[in-house]
Amino acid sequence: MEKAPESLWLKSAPSRSFAPLGEDVSVDVCVIGGGIAGVTASLLLQQAGKRVALLEAGTIGNGVTGSTTAHVTEALDTRWFKLIESFGKAGAKLAAQAQRAAIERIALFVEQDRLDCDFRLLPGYFYSESGSGEIEKEFAAAKALGMQVSLVPAAPLPFATQKAVRFDNQAQFRP
What we know:
Layout: H1 8-12, E1 29-32, H2 36-47, E2 52-55, E3 71-72, H3 80-113, E4 120-127, H4 133-144, E5 149-152, E6 164-172
Parallel strand pairs: 1-2
Antiparallel strand pairs: 3-6, 4-6, 5-6
Helix pairs in contact: 3-4
């Protein structure tokens, strides 16, 4: 099995380590895992007045977070039209609102804490190289859920694509 190339984020990030707990601590919440989700949950809980311990077995940000493509998007792996079929429009709309809220919350963290993480808003695309049937269904579903989307002739990639759904105001950052 071929080893994946080392992540750009891991190559360029300064190494930080923290000492193990030296004694028992009393907290309201213990978060296990120091990736972006664990760090974010810990910060939000702390801001809500909770005493939090964040535990990580390895190095903060070196697991899934360190190997991420660092994009935050409303285009999910499960298509929106499938989510509407499974959970109804109201259920899918909750998921869509959560995706939008995540992008906006990250932008707020960056602004409030003046984080040097190359955060930027940019479009994201759902595309196909071979057909446009799912593209049009996904566009209609995303539009019905209130997302800022447009149907474009192709995604701006160095290879040919069919129609694409352009999701506006997606995000990218350096974790």
